[in-house]
Each structure stands twice: as structure tokens, then as C-alpha cells.
Amino acid sequence: MDSKYEIIIYWSKEDEGYIAEVPELAGCMADGNSYAEALQNVEVIIAEWIETAKLSGKSIPEPKGKLMYA
User: Fold this and answer.
1) CB count in 10 Å sphere of residue 46
2) Residue 29, domain member (yes or no)
């Protein structure tokens, strides 16, 4: 899957792993032992988030791309 949603990936010392968050999809996040694994896992979760929203009749936000500037 090639998601168009912004994904933020960071190291979590507390969790001892990488965390991947999708700010545009409430509660959509995943983790992994490596950056690549976190990215791969969150792509699966994005697809599941969208599928669940469709099944429950909830709206799915359009991807906006980069949300913030550093």
C-alpha cells in the first residue's frame, strides 16, 4: 500500500521501539523494532482503519500531505 497520509515515526525509549502515528486518522498508530517495520505495520493499520470506518459509515478524511513545517 502506498498511503498518502502523513506518517510520523519516532523512537520511543519507554516502549523500546519505533512508533508510527497517522495524525489525520484518529488513534491510528503502530510500532516496530525498526523504522522500516514500524512503517510497514502502520500501512496495514491505515488500511484496517479505513476499512473499519467504511463498515461503520464514518467519514474518511482526505489526505492533506504534510501538516506542519519544522
Assistant:
1) 23
2) yes
